[in-house]
Amino acid sequence: MTLRLFNTLTGQLDELLPSDREALRMYACGPTVYDYSHIGNFRTFLQVDVLRRFLKLTGTQVRHVMNITDVDDKIIRNATAAGVSIGTYTASFEAAFFEDLESLRVERPEIIAHATEHIPKMVELVQKLAAAGAAYQAEDGSWYFRLAAFPEYGKLSKKDLSGMEDGARVDVDEYEKDSARDFALWKAAKPGETSWDTAIGRGRPGWHIECSTMAMEYLGESFDLHAGGEDLIFPHHENEIAQSESVTHKTFARHWMHVRFLLVDGRKMSKSEGNFYTLRDLLLKGYKASAIRLALISVPYRHQFNFTFDGLVEATAAIERLRTFKQRLTEGRFSQGENPALQESAKKAQAEYLAALNNDLNTAEARAPIFDLIRTANTALDQAQLKAGDRDAILAVLASFDAVFDVMEDRDAEPTRHALEWAEKSGRMAEVAPELLARQGLTDEAIDALVAERTQAKRQRNFARADQIRNELAEKGVVIEDSKDGVRWKRK
Ligand code: AMP
Ligand code: ZN
Fold it and tell me: What lines the ligand 1 site, CB under 6 Å?
């Protein structure tokens, strides 16, 4: 079975295979590091993570490039306002971005490419475009792409550009839907702005040229997949195609994946609307990184998805079920042998799980058979019908689920601790939820009390509560050890 993924370019589900049979060459637009990314941005990065993890699970290696936009209008504006260089300004937001990706367990792409480190290559591409008659220099020294030179313009976004005004120009990086215009490739230096002295004049690159340049630099003129959020289809990705194909006359990316928006009350989560949460905002409210990850990936990428706190609560409960179940399996003692019905259930769950992901990465449908299997297996466990061979088969299914979802191990303490340290450093302690502060500030007496409650719960065979206490303590960095002399605990 091969992954069939919706392709914005062809408008249908297409098989996604590495054309060189070795590694799938993919480029995903990265962040503009002018501020903290919000969870809408992270939805896109997480869905790309789902894709790359699923490819790897099913035996396809990936060569994944992500750019860091470290020079653009917003960065220059903010750095100037802060009175620092753009390098100083972007460094801390880039570090925060990678810390957030790690908290969300997003795998690091094989190649991270910074715009400011590829200026000479961008200049070369502008020169090639000029030689091909697809770029021209305006009176102020800026360079523009000549849309009239690329008749296929609009093929990705399916825009009808027949009424387009020849020679009308736009020099901002992001512009309105219906204003297809000659767009800036290179912006002439303005007094006081960061600029580079190059063969095409003193200035700085436009946003679009960086992605064409860096994608072709690391993946070749033609590659397998290009991804980003749905807002990038036009103009950014349309412009990338125009800039690249006008020079190479080859298909730039064969497959285009676009992640639909995370919404709040029906509107796109965005900085400019002011309706956003950063990862740190949510961690300080007491939500766990794993729950945020699960909530953001559980709605398939091709559906818009309305963010709610109830969704996070649901994800928290789902993770609790997964972890408690796994603990039951790994810590239990089972007789040798197999229960044929359970073997069948495990096989069926695994097949349905893979089929759902192969079908355009349907994460919601992929989750369902896993939770069905947990229900069936829990019943068997209660009736002592689960054998050692079943445990191994079920653990294998959970492992393949977790190769993509990655929420089973409890690693939630660290992201929360980082967020608290960050809040303390940046004067945001007032935003921390009181329950979280209380949990973090656990006294020895409070731990003793919880450990005693757990022992009592176990005695009453209330294993769910006992596990819950163990997990809660683990989250706060407290490990419980059961030994024949009683229960011990220590802080990690
Ligand atoms: P930016 O840092 O603004 O360049 O955005 C980084 C990525 O997040 C891009 O792929 C955007 O398309 C994507 N993005 C921005 N807003 C949202 C949203 N509300 N939901 C999903 N993806 C988004
Ligand atoms: Zn891009």
Answer: 29, 31-32, 37, 40-41, 43-44, 228-229, 231-232, 259, 261-262, 268-270
